[in-house]
Amino acid sequence: MAIFPRTGTGTPASRPVALRLPFLRHLGPNWYATVMGTAVVATAGAALPVGVPGLRAGCVVVWALSAALLAVVLTARAGHWLLHRDQARAHLMDPAVAPFHGCLSMALLAVGAGTLVVGRDVIGHPAAVAVDAVLFTAGTVTGLAAAVAIPYLMVVRHRPAPGTASPVWLLPLVAPMVSAAVGPLLVPELPTGQGREALLLACYAMFGLSLLATLVVVPLVFARLVHQGPLPLALTPTMFLVLGPLGQSTTAVNQLADVAPGAVAAPYASAFGAFAVLYGVPVMGFALLWLALSAALVVRAMRRGMGFTMTWWGFTFPVGTCVTGAAGLARHTGLDAFTWLAVALYALLVTAWAVAGVRTLSGLFSGVLLAGPRPLRPVTVRTA
């Protein structure tokens, strides 16, 4: 029996308006950023190398919120594809929207990692491992698919004009790096032998895949800034997206170094530990440089009237990856400087998350964030 009465061609546009749920029509893949930004608050808080009373319990609450958000956004996005396929296809063909499809992978991976890191306090370790294994597998597969499909569409269908490179282009490319950073959580859960080593090296392969792709895109973004000037006000928060591959790659090498001794032979395990510091320290230095540049451009944009958009969620997840990266360097170097850097970045993360969350709720209640693009006003031409 058909769910919707077929009239004409039976396309989504021919269904009754009441069944099409018009508020879902413009709900794009960028909404997964709310899940990512919330989940990283929990995992970053658990990674801090300091003891704060009540922090662990707070992280558990935030993780539960991220899991609920994931369920809601997944359901809403499924409804978007089911009821508004024309708009969903238009999003894929839109060079400004298509890269956000990489956020689905990162949302799955972030909630999965949070489940194993803090969610186990609620559901138990075996269940947490099972949930993370499912979400890690699904997130990795979708992330690798996006890392190929979105650049393919950019080359074949989008064809962006020269000088229009955007930090948003990094979103499908950084997804495999998130897999590389959270995959090590599952390495100790596998039996000793081929399985552990295969997962460890697969994570390293995804680390390399994402890193080299990032090294291709970031110079394009900086060249655009130098030759074309600052990004439009609404896109200025996306400057923070460059921090994602920087902080996440630093997190990845430190996480992989933690589990390498139980997965590979001794000479390689110690080399992985050395590489975590030799790679992580200079990359974290560049991340701080980019953070300062991005913050200066955001201040400039706010002074020129930058209003709230969903791009403000770019202030959350990328900063969270820098928190976990700095925490990893604190573990492997023993330097208090990295400990306090992680704490300072976490304070910035929580502030950004709270502001973005409140503004998003306000936009939802007012209906602004789910409304379609405003039509252009007709221009009246006066004649003499």
Describe the protein's architecture and organization:
It is a single chain. The chain starts with 16 loop residues before the first helix and ends in an 18-residue tail after the last helix. It is mainly α and 384 residues long. It is globular and about 55 Å long. Residues 1-10 and 375-384 have low confidence and may be disordered. Helices cover 69% and strands 0% of the residues. Helix 2 runs antiparallel to helix 3 (55-83), helix 2 (32-47) packs across helix 5 (102-123) and helix 3 crosses helix 5. The protein contains twelve helices and no strands.
List keywords for this structure.
384 residues; mainly alpha; 12 helices; 69% helix; 0% strand; disordered C terminus
What share of residues are in beta strands? under 5%
Rounded radius of gyration (Å): 22 Å
How many strands, which pairing sense, and closed or not: the largest β-sheet?
none
Q: What share of residues is helical? A: 55-70%
H-E order: HHHHHHHHHHHH
Q: What distance separates the N and C termini?
A: 64 Å
Q: Which shape, going by the Cα principal axes? A: globular
Number of helices: 12
Quickly give the structural class: mainly alpha
Summed over residues and divided by their number, the pLDDT gives a mean of: 90
- Count the E strands: 0
Q: Ranges with pLDDT <50 over ≥5 residues? A: 1-10, 375-384
List the helices and strands and how they pair.
Elements: H1 17-20, H2 32-47, H3 55-83, H4 85-93, H5 102-123, H6 125-158, H7 171-182, H8 194-228, H9 243-259, H10 266-303, H11 317-333, H12 336-366
